[in-house]
Amino acid sequence: PKTPSPSGPPVLILHPRASEGGVLWRSGEVDGDSALPQPADKAWDPKALAILAKEHSLCATGPALAELETHCSRCGQSFDLLLRSLAPLLSVFARVTPAQKEAILLALNRAGLVTLMCGDGTNDVGALKAAHVGVSIVNDPELERRIEGSGGSKKGSKGSARDRMARAMQELQEQEQDPTVVKLGDASIASPFTCRRTSVDAVLSVIRQGRCTLVTTIQVYKILALNCLVSAFMMSALYLRGLKQGDSQMTAIGLVVAGLFFFLSQARPLAAVADRKPPSSVFAPAVGLSILGQFVVHLSSLLAVLALCERYSDGSQALSQAADGRFQPNLVNSAVFLLSALMQINNFVVNYRGEPFTQSLTANTAMLRTVQALYGGLLLALGGSLEPLSDLLQLAPFPNKDFQAILLVVLLCNFGAALAVEKLCQRLE
Known about the structure:
Layout: E1 11-16, E2 23-27, H1 40-43, H2 46-53, E3 57-61, H3 62-75, H4 79-86, E4 92-94, H5 98-110, E5 116-119, H6 125-130, E6 133-137, H7 141-149, H8 161-177, H9 186-190, E7 193-195, H10 202-240, H11 247-265, H12 285-312, H13 331-350, H14 365-383, H15 387-392, H16 401-427
Parallel strand pairs: 1-3, 3-4, 5-6, 6-7
Antiparallel strand pairs: 1-2
Helix pairs in contact: 4-5, 7-8, 10-12, 10-13, 11-13, 11-14, 12-13, 12-16, 13-14, 13-16
């Protein structure tokens, strides 16, 4: 039996009785006459096991599970239902058969847990297919025999930890020198992920990349939803006033959004796996509340800018244009364009998730520099100090400094309020 870690809880291992049948709990610290026998019914009773699991790390062997299945068949009980309640409470399953591996994975799935299975052979195919995530670790028998012949410890032997570590390092060196030495097998066919190495660190890579993909997908959907809502209400507001946006303005926004989406997708996962979990779905309550809250902020900003333009409009500019006519810049469509551009950039910055799952915005240098340049360009366009930029974006001159100052305050409030909504919703996850 194993000796448990001094810092961990005591270990109890479920063994089958040798002669009289049934099972017994055997301590991981002692063996032989010091075993801790348990009545058969208590050994696999879910309520008694739950109490026992609070103070011990529970393990079960394959023969003990076989005895449990035999007992269930004699008593007319369902082994699958019993295993569903017991499997989540057990820490280790040892010396199990391929069929038992698959049954354990299915029981954990039915218990509502998310399972991942690592396997390297044909006997793991059933469990790999049953798990939510399957990772096959491919080893080559010829490589193993060559390492054993060169003085390495035999795989599965009870050598020292140093010998096993030396063998693993030798296998890694052999595979790094010639990756083609490992050939795909049945395990790789049954699992969606295949690692061409002997180490199980591929599990961490799957978790890191999976979380990064999930976080990126959610933030992309949030940005798309907010951008579509902003664009729809912006164009509706202009249409109701007989106005529209210029071709240069629409082209500039389209190029900016495409570039930011590209830089957003380049965020890499962090090396450390965080204890905190990301939202499990795009339809998570926190995600929906975030979209709703930010949309309210954007809509309020749009209404505020329209009211500001009406306040400073002198009525001398034509507010009626043909849908296919020549675009004429005026106060309303210029202010609404600046607000619309800023809101769409804010959607990327505010909804960029970053740590603890992916690179932070400051670490994503390309996106950070692009956002800084865009904010600077919008500030110059608002100030009207760079006339070529205003001509390129088809902006009309603003009435006075007071109008520019109030518009700047609205833009800053839009960013601050949207960021506050997002941070609040993240706390609700």
